[in-house]
Hints:
- It holds the Pfam family Kinesin.
- One of its GO terms (cellular component) is microtubule cytoskeleton.
- The protein is of the alpha/beta class.
- The chain is 63% helix and 9% strand.
- The strands form two sheets. Strands 1, 5, 6, 7, 8, 9, 10 and 11 form an eight-stranded mixed β-sheet that branches.
- Bound molecules: adenosine-5'-triphosphate.
- Adenosine-5'-triphosphate binds next to helix 16.
Amino acid sequence: MGSVDGDFDGLRADERRMEVIEWLNALLPEYCLPLDSSDEELRELLSDGTVLCHIVNTLIPGVLEASWGTYSSADQQSDNVNKFLSVVADMGLPGFTVKDLEEGSMSPVVDCLLVLRESVSSGLGNDTSVNGSKSLLRKKWQVRETGRPLVPGVGQGKASPGEDKRNALPDPKSQQKAPAFSGQKLHEIFQLKCGSHADLPAAKISEMMHSNSLDNAPTQSLLSVVNGILDESIERKKGEIPHRVVYLLRKVVHEIERRLCIQAEHTRSQNVIIKTREDKYRSKIKALEILVNGTNEENQMAIKRLQIIKEEKSKIEEKRKLGEQDVARLMKEKEKAENIIASLKKEMEVMTSMHEEQLKKIEINAKQMEEYLTAKIKEVDSLLVQSNKKIKEVEATSQLKSQLWNKKEGIFQNYMNSQQLYVKDLRISSQSIRNEMQALNMELRDEMSNFGSGLKCLVDAAENYHKVLAENQKLFNEVQELKGNIRVYCRVRPFLPGQDKKSTTVDYIGENGELLISNPVKQGKDGHRMFKFNKVFSPFTSQAEVFSDIQPLIRSVLDGFNVCIFAYGQTGSGKTYTMSGPSTSKQDWGVNYRALNDLFDISLSRRNALAYEANRAVGSTALNERSSRSHSILTVHVRGLDVKNGSTSRGCLHLIDLAGSERVERSEATGDRLKEAQHINKSLSALGDVIFALAQKNAHVPYRNSKLTQVLQSSLGGQAKTLMFVQINPDVESYSETISTLKFAERVSGVELGAARSNKEGKDIKELLEQVLAF
Ligand SMILES: Nc1ncnc2c1ncn2[C@@H]1O[C@H](COP(=O)(O)OP(=O)(O)OP(=O)(O)O)[C@@H](O)[C@H]1O
């Protein structure tokens, strides 16, 4: 793009220069500079300032006079240029510097000339201001209206009207090219006053005709001559024109014609040049348009590429950022690694120095050891020498000693003989002792046989113990059966802290399982309801007391019975309290902990006779693990192996914390909770139905009505023993739940209780129990 601008600038400068040259050619045709002249050619024409002054004089005749001369000095040249510039400045037009004219670009000079042209052309005609400025300029430069400058020696005299046209300055070139006619001479000829042309001497005219001075004279001057002659002719009132004057006129006219022809020729050639230039510029413009179109497409492409590049750049920047982060991380890691390496290096250095020190020490020790060992070797050598000496000495002494021993042997032989005699005596006495020992052995054998018969009696007694134990178990279980296979214990929960103790529904708790519940709404006889169970535990009954009543059932599990203990009651009535206990401290233990503990204790006490295999399963029946909405079942399977006869017994204990017994309609449950409550109710009523059927000894027991009864099937019915804790809340607000719970329990226990009561043997239960416990 820059180059295109440059081209345009160049083009504009060329055009402007051509414009100036064209104007100059029109104004001063005598110079006739080719239109495509360069800056340098224009500079050559204008540099001495003469032409510039000539321009001013042509536009405002007589304002300036250039310093003429074939070879004008540098001072003259700058003087001419300064004159021109001061005229331009006086006209209020922008000028240029002398330096611009001497070197560098000619555009300031061209601009100045164009502005001057514009200013003059716009001020032509009846522009008084321009005329005014012209007169001012003339005044300034002391020029008369005739146009002659008031320079001494130049054009002095009276100016006549019409003399203006004749006052044009002579062409400096003509002066240069025609030395025969000096500038002053030609001037004189063309500046002749009226009537003088006719009076020109013949020699002078012939000199003019034969010389080429007309060739060099400015056209303006030639026209002035013609005009002068014509004026003269008019003045002389059609007087006869001398032949020589006619000839001169012809010559002048001929010259004018010749010049016009040249000018026309020149104009034609200029036109051709201009046309070719125009074509050139048109083709250039087309090329530029194509270039511009191409550039637009390229621009769009470039914009698209730029966008892609921008996107790529942003991606690259992101990558670069990530890279920088990586680099930062790696730098940190590198720093860490360098730190570690530095610390390791330090450690290495320390270790190396330590090793070196140790090596030195070892070397020192080795040296010391070597010295020590060489000393030792020396010592050993000397000792060896000494020991050799000693061996010899010892050999000598041993010889002496053997002689001595031989003497002592003789003495010992004598002693031995005497001792043999003594041993003979001892043998005789030992024989008598042996006889005594045999007698004693006989006595011991008799005693041992007596002890064996005693031991046999003990073994027989032990065997009898097993039989008695079995009988005991049998009796115990009979007692349990007599007590009933289904038992219902009611437990009344105490009031919780913050509850009003006066608002109780429990009126009376009898020793034989009676429970009187009062209706808070009804008064009198109808306001009370009596229930009867196997036992009723008051709010003050401890965990241990409750368990002592069910302990025999746990014992029967080890004897191969299935036992099922469960707690039934509304939420918050104490089911978990009874079954598990409020805490894990021993005194708070519920039935579960105590039952398991008891099983272990009894199995341990029976370990000599029976080996048990202490298995447990825990589960819950509903989706929710909260005890109030799920049944929690703890099952213990017991297998006992009789050590003596190898027989096995299997028992199973189910400990169940049932879900809350609230009625669905009362719980106001909806959605999943409703379904859950319905399931719970269903399983509880199924349990009731099973127990009821069992108590009535029905042929069909509906075990399959619920999952709960299916799971407990083996522990409900048959020889299985079932115990139900009916938990009640004494609070008045829970009255209706309490009644429905008790009714359910009564339904379960009612028939069984009746059966137990009608059994005559039931009266002997207490006695039987006492017998068993006494045994
Ligand atoms: N015999 C009792 N002595 C003292 N506090 C009791 C007794 N029975 C129950 N409680 C207390 O009453 C509250 C409710 O008891 P518990 O949680 O055992 O009831 P629950 O019937 O198991 O309730 P849920 O059906 O919601 O599980 C507990 O704070 C418990 O400690």
